[in-house]
Amino acid sequence: MNALERINELKEILNQASYEYYVLDQPTIEDYEYDRYMEELIRLENEHPDLKTADSPTNKIGGEVLTKFEKVVHTSKMMSLSDAFSFDELKEFDARVKKEAPTATYCCELKIDGLSVALRYENGVLTLGATRGNGEIGENITNNVKTIKSIPLSLKGNETLEVRGEIFMPKKSFHALNEERALNEEELFANCRNAAAGSIRQLDSKIAAKRNLDAFLYYLLDDTSSTQKDALEAMRKLGFKVNTLYRHCQTMEDVFSYINEMAEVRPTLPYDIDGIVIKVNEKNLYSIIGETVKYPKWAIAYKFPPEEVKTKLLNITFQVGRSGVITPVANFKPVFVQGSLISKATLHNEDYILAKDIHINDTVLIRKAGDVIPEVVRPIQEDRTADAVPFQMIEVCPCCHTKLVRKPGEADYFCMNPDCSEKQVNRLIHFASKPAYNIDSLGDKLVLQLFEAGFLKTIADVFKLKDHYEELITLPGLGVKSIDHLLEAIEGSKKNNLNQLLFGLGIKHCGAKISTLICKNFKTMDRIMNATYEELANINDIGEAIAYELTEFMKQEENRDLIEELKGADLTMEYQMAEIHENYFTNKKCVLTGTLDSMGRSEAKKIIEGFGGSLSESVSAKTDILILGANPGSKYDKAKKLGIYIMEEQEFLSKIKE
C-alpha cells in the first residue's frame, strides 16, 4: 500500500470514528487506538505535505494563526427570533399563525445557549464557517470551526450546501477550562456562552482546538423537505450532529407540555439551554405566514424564567461607593446559576434586608435578575437553623472607621470622610469610566495601582501624571508604550464636553442624563458652580434632592478648588451644544429595548438627541416610539399594551438617513 492509499484509509477510519463518537455518541474504537491512527496520519502528511487535503482529520488539531478575521457576506440573511416570556404570549403567537394557516402544527427544539454559525460545503468539503454578525455580514472563523470534532470536514456525498446551527461549550469543557485558568491566575469565563464566544474568536486555532467546543445544526438552506422535522432528519443523514430532543407538537397544549418537560430535565443536560424554539412544522406555510424585516412570523423563542438556586448565606460584608454610600453585600456558598458560578450579590440597604428578613447562615434562593445581575430572592425560612444570625447594620465605615450617617428620609448610610481611601479610589474609577470622562486604558486595576503607588489621590492628579513619566514606566506591568498610550488618552480627553466632566465628578444624584440637562441650562461650569438651589429646583426633571446635592457639593471649598485645578489643566468648561438637524425624531420621546445589531445604545441615543429627540429608559404613556432590538424585554409588552408605535431596527436606520 502506497502513502496516498494509506492516508485515504486513515482519513476514512478517523472520520468515521469521530462521527460515531461525537455525533452518534456510540464509539466503536478505543481512545488509544484513535490516537495511534492520528499519529500515523500526521507522520505521513508531514512526510508527504502535497497529499494533505482540506478534509483531513489532522485539521481538527488546529495550527494556522491569523492576524484578523475576514468579513463574510451571508448568502441569505441570518435572521433572529422574537422572544416570548409567558404561555400567554405563546397563545398570541399561535393565534397569529392560525389566522394565516389554520392547519399549522409545530416542531419544538431546544434553544442552545451558544452562538450562531453558518457552514458552507462545496462538493462535500467544508470551505467556510462564519459567525452571524449583523445577520448580513459575519466573520470568517473557518480555521476554528474545523477544530470542532462534531462538525464534519467532509460529507458522505458530494453535495454543495449551506447549513446553520449553534456552536456551544459543553458544561464539562467549561468547568475544566475555568479550573485551568484559575491555576494560571487568569480571569474566569462567566458562563458557557461567553467561553464559547471567546474560544471561537481565537486567532490561533490551536487554542480553539483545546477548548473542546461542540455544535448542533438545525437549518439547511434550500432544503426540499416538506417539514422541519424531516429537515432535521435529513441533516442527520448527511452526517451533521442534530439535537435529538426535538418534538413534533400538534397543538399549543402539546407545546406547553414539552416546555414543562424540558424545564425539568434542563439542569441534567450536558450543555446550557435558555429556552425552546417553536417553529411551524409545515414549510409550505412559511411564505403564507410571512416574516418581518428582522424576524420570521412562523417561529418564536420561548425564554425560560430566571433559574432559582438554593445556597447558604455565609456572611454579609460592606462596600464603600464613590459618594460614600455603604452597600451590604451577600457572600454565599458559590453556586452555578444559568451557566456561571456566582458567590456574591448586592443587598442594597438595611431596609431591604430587614424587609426580606434575611439572616446570616440562612438558606437563600439566588437568581439572575434580567438573566444578568445576581440577586437574593428570599430566605427559605422553613430551613432556618439555630445558628442563623439576624442582620445588624454597621455603625462605622469598614475602610476608615468614621461613624456612618443616615439622613432622615433616606435608606442609605454614608461615610462622610472625604479622605476615606475606598471612596477616593471609587471616585477615580468612576471619573475615568466610559460613561463619564471615558479615558481609554485608565481602567479599574490601573487606577488602583496608581492610587496605591501614590500617583493618584484626586481627579486633578489624573492630569498631572505626565509629570511623573520616568517613574510611571518603571511600575510593574507598565512600560513606555502603555504609559505613552495612557498619557495620550488623558490629553485627548480634555476635549470632552462639559456634561461628561460634571457627571465624572460623582455628585450624588447627578447621573449622565441629569448632568447633560444641567449643562444645557447653565452652559458653563462657572454658572453651574454659582447656581442657586431655587434656579436648579425650577428646572423640569431636576427636583429638590438633586438641587440640594449639587449646591451642597459646590459650596465645599475642596470641590471648588478641584474644579479650579481642572480649569488650569485646560479641560473644557463650556457646554458645546450639538447642532440639531430636524427629522422624524425631532421632539419625539423614544425608548430602546433589546440590542441593536447596527450600533450600541449610546450611539443610538446620540443620534436621536442630534435630531432633537430623547431616549428614555422606561416606557410610559408619554413615549412616542419603542425601538425594537434583538431579545427585547418587558418594555415591549408594556408598549404593546399602551398602543405605542413599535419601530424595528431597519425602519429606525431608514428614518435616521432621511
Q: What does this 3D model show about the protein?
A:
The structure is a single chain. By secondary structure, this protein is α+β, with helices and mostly antiparallel strands. 37% of the residues lie in helices and 20% in strands. It contains 25 helices and 23 strands. Strands 12, 13, 14, 16, 17 and 19 form a six-stranded antiparallel sheet that branches. A five-stranded mixed sheet has the order 2-11-10-3-9, with helices on one face. Strands 5-4-7-8 form a four-stranded antiparallel sheet. A hairpin with a 4-residue loop joins strand 12 and strand 13 (325-337). The longest helix has 21 residues, at 3-23.
How is the topology of this model organized?
Layout: H1 3-23, H2 31-47, E1 71-73, E2 83-84, H3 87-100, E3 106-112, E4 115-122, E5 125-131, E6 137-139, H4 142-145, E7 161-168, H5 171-183, H6 192-200, H7 205-210, E8 214-220, H8 228-238, E9 247-249, H9 252-265, E10 273-280, H10 286-289, E11 299-303, E12 309-320, E13 325-337, E14 340-346, H11 350-356, E15 359-360, E16 363-369, E17 373-379, E18 389-390, E19 413-414, H12 421-432, H13 444-452, H14 459-462, H15 469-472, H16 480-493, H17 498-504, H18 512-522, H19 525-529, H20 533-537, H21 543-555, H22 557-568, E20 589-593, H23 601-610, E21 614-616, E22 625-628, H24 634-642, E23 645-648, H25 649-657
Parallel strand pairs: 2-11, 20-21, 20-22, 22-23
Antiparallel strand pairs: 1-6, 3-9, 3-10, 4-5, 4-7, 7-8, 10-11, 12-13, 12-16, 13-14, 13-19, 15-18, 16-17
Helix pairs in contact: 1-2, 17-18
Please state roughly what percent of the residues sit in beta strands, choosing from under 5%, 5-15%, 15-25%, 25-35%, 35-45% or over 45%: 15-25%
Structural class from helices and strands?
alpha+beta
What's the total count of β strands?
A: 23
Give the overall form: globular
